[in-house]
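Sequence only, no structure available. Ideas?
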Amino acid sequence: PDLPADGELPPHPPRPRPVYTETTTVTCAPSTRLAGETQGEVAQSYSSIRESIGSSTVLATMPGGAVFAILDGPVCSGPHYWYQVSYNGVVGWVTEGNLGDYWLEPVSLD
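Reply:
I predicted one. Tokens follow.
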């Protein structure tokens, strides 16, 4: 566009501000039992190690009773607690459980 004769740019129209109408709170369930632990154990028939949080890409499967190292977590997302784990040289993410069911648990000292 052409500049006005005085060389001044016309003022920009104000940008619309976003309107937030409600706040959504994500609650993870069940309450985490692995926070602060360095190892965990698969408490069901198997657990899938995923490429990233929420990913559908499965890198490996851990059988029931498998012990794994916990590298990071918990991370609350969608509404699970996720942990980064290492198992047999595979590093990825697993979910601790859903609602009242725990799929992973602290290593038992039996």
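The chain has a mean pLDDT of 83.
Hope that gets you unstuck.
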